[in-house]
Amino acid sequence: MRAIHLRHAILLVLLLSGCGGDASAPESPANFAGNWVANGSSPGGGTFVFRLALVQSGSAVSGTGTVLDGPHGPVSGTVQGNKWTFQLVPEGQCVGSFSGSATINASGTAINGTMSGSSQCTGTVTGTFIGARE
Questions:
Q1: Any residues with CB less than 8 A from the CB of 33 and at least 6 apart, and which?
Q2: Beta strands 34-41 and 110-119: pairing type?
Q3: Are residues 84 and 99 in contact, defined by beta-carbon separation less than 8 angstroms?
Q4: What DSSP character marks residue 27?
């Protein structure tokens, strides 16, 4: 009889230890889809404005990025939680490559982040930005 109680106690402990949920389960990706406008600045005092038109499927985000008076091209990346890591590859005469990351606020209306890279039109650019949904 005592062996049965011990088995039940062990079984109960094993069952209850799985009831707390999976603490390592990944967060659902935040929604970055839509049109965004962002203002950025670089350490040297330069400023830039860019627009993003994004679509999202699960954690994959793609679309178009346009730096006003500068390069434009496809942008793509991956969302993990509330952070989007991206690459922008300028087209046309402004061939180059930019990469960065953006974090979205809890209400999904604003982003802030960093980016760096270079193109034939801009040279090397490193900066921070804040943006809002249009």
A1: 54, 55, 56, 61
A2: unpaired
A3: no
A4: P
Domain locations in the chain as residue ranges = 34-133
CB 105 within 8 A of CB 113: no
Residues 95-106: tens digit of each pLDDT: 889 999 999 999
Partners of residue 46 on adjacent β-strands:
none
Q: Is the pTM of this model over 0.85?
A: no
CA-angle at 50, arms to 49 and 55, nearest 5°: 155
pLDDT band at 67 (very low <50, low <70, confident <90, very high): confident
pLDDT tens digits for range 6-65: 455 444 444 444 455 555 566 799 999 999 999 999 888 888 899 999 999 999 999 999
Length of the chain: 134
Which residues, listed in sequence order, are joined to residue 87 by a DSSP beta bridge?
76, 99
The CATH superfamily label for domain 34-133 reads Quinohemoprotein amine dehydrogenase alpha subunit, domain 2 (2.40.128.120)
